[in-house]
Specification:
Elements: H1 2-30, H2 37-59, H3 63-70, E1 83-85, E2 89-92, H4 94-100, E3 113-117, E4 120-126, E5 132-150, E6 156-174, E7 177-189, E8 192-193, E9 222-224
Parallel strand pairs: 1-7
Antiparallel strand pairs: 1-2, 2-9, 3-5, 4-5, 5-6, 6-7, 6-8
Helix pairs in contact: 2-3
């Protein structure tokens, strides 16, 4: 009988010790400082506003101003790891982004161009340490312009594309302000708009179905997208991309867009 009592005492003592160790580990993990709910709410609005600024700048071709205003600093610690990803290629480093995306913001060459993109259905997650954030958006849009085409009567006609795409964005807090660190774009459907396409634009796949410039030679500072996103087409299976952001403590514990 005494042996059985000692046996159960030892088991009970072991359970107590295990519980103490478990609680100690949990408390140690939970002891990392976490931002308040108020800080998290403010950060969410600020990140939303940053991406909305991107849309306004993009609509008016003010890409260089955008880079200066809402991207990480050109001489900062995040400049070398800044990324702007399209379905088939990735611009690496802020200098590359500025030379490529910034160059397309030459307003003198965009006379007669009209475009807009919307940010819808946002999911924004702020890191528990308050230093980074992640977000995804659907972003339908359109771009049309006069490029010299004329109808049978000699009147100028516009052409362009619808843009049905998604964004995955990483933000970082730099010098107290939220900045764009990484952007990845996912083109679902980019049908052409012209005087001849009519209603058929919605039933024809975008170009070859890749909607990302497949086959083009990569310029310096560019890399092939390691996981290219395939646009809607006859052989396209729907996939959940971009990955939806989930709660995380610090950026090293999550993925990058």
């Amino acid at each position: 009988m005494k042996t059985k009592i000692n046996y159960f005492i030892n088991i009970f003592a072991g359970l107590i010790a295990f519980t103490a160790v478990f609680q100690s580990c949990s408390q140690k993990q939970d002891s990392r400082p976490v931002i308040s709910d108020a800080e998290r709410a403010r950060a969410s609005w600020e990140c939303q506003n940053v991406l909305s600024r991107h849309n306004y700048y993009h609509a008016t071709a003010m890409h260089l101003q955008e880079i200066e205003d809402i991207w990480v600093k050109e001489d900062g610690e995040y400049a070398a790891t800044a990324k702007f990803s399209q379905p088939q290629q990735v611009m690496i480093g802020l200098d590359t982004i500025k030379a490529d995306y910034g160059k397309t913001g030459d307003t003198s060459s965009r006379k007669g161009i009209w475009g807009m993109h919307l940010n819808t259905t946002p999911i924004i997650v702020i890191a528990d340490d308050g230093k980074t954030a992640k977000g995804v958006w659907y972003s339908p849009g359109v771009e049309v312009g006069f490029r010299g085409e004329k109808d049978k009567d000699g009147n100028p006609v516009a052409s362009g594309n619808w843009w049905w795409e998604k964004y995955g964005v990483d933000f970082v807090k730099e010098d107290g302000e939220w900045k764009i660190w990484h952007i990845q774009m996912y083109y679902d459907h980019t049908p052409q708009i012209s005087s001849e396409t009519g209603s058929t634009i919605w039933t024809k796949p975008s170009c070859d179905g890749s909607a990302g410039g497949g086959g083009q030679a990569l310029q310096p500072g560019h890399e092939a997208n390691p996981n290219p996103y395939k646009a809607w087409g006859p052989e396209t299976m729907p996939v959940l991309r971009p990955e939806l952001p989930e709660p995380y403590y610090t950026f090293s514990e999550t993925f990058s867009y």
